[in-house]
Amino acid sequence: MQNLRHPRSEMPAEVGSLLAELSCGDVDRQRMAAAFVRVMYKVRADARQAGTTLIVAVDGRLMELDPDSPLLADVSALIPIVKAVAPIPEELEPPGFV
């Protein structure tokens, strides 16, 4: 398996938490985190395609955000790790998951 380390000092806390789950030794926790990252991509892609916004909690407040808002965590650095710990067929990956 490839090295699953990524410098945490460069990433937001949400992404660091997902990285910790993806890097842990518990297969179930790794798969859950991988599924969460994939769902994030799928929801954003669906919102973009439909031309809608997302309703998310930010610091305890509900906000309506564009799917590409900088307030949403960028988890793109986790994609190679997700693919390594929980591989699925390429055709089942969410849009933009490259």
Description:
With 98 residues, this protein is mainly alpha-helical. The protein has one domain (11-92). The chain has helices spanning 13-23, 27-50, 79-85, and strands at 54-58, 61-65. Strands 1-2 form a two-stranded antiparallel ribbon.
| Straight-line N-to-C gap | 19 Å
**Uncertain ranges:** 1-9
Helix content: 40-55%
Q: What is the tally of beta strands?
A: 2
Describe the biggest sheet?
2 strands, antiparallel
Q: Please state the overall shape, judged from the principal axes of the Cα atoms.
A: globular
Q: Work out the strand percent.
A: 5-15%
Mean pLDDT: 86
Count structural domains.
1
Structural class: mainly alpha
- The H/E string reads HHEEH
Query: Can you list the strand order of the major beta sheet?
Result: 1-2
Rg over C-alpha atoms, rounded to the nearest angstrom: 14 Å
Distinct helical segment count: 3
Tags for this model:
single chain; mainly alpha; 3 helices; 43% helix; 10% strand
Topology of this structure?
Blueprint lengths: L12 H11 L3 H24 L3 E5 L2 E5 L13 H7 L13
Antiparallel strand pairs: 1-2
Brief rundown of the structure:
The protein is mainly alpha-helical and 98 residues long.
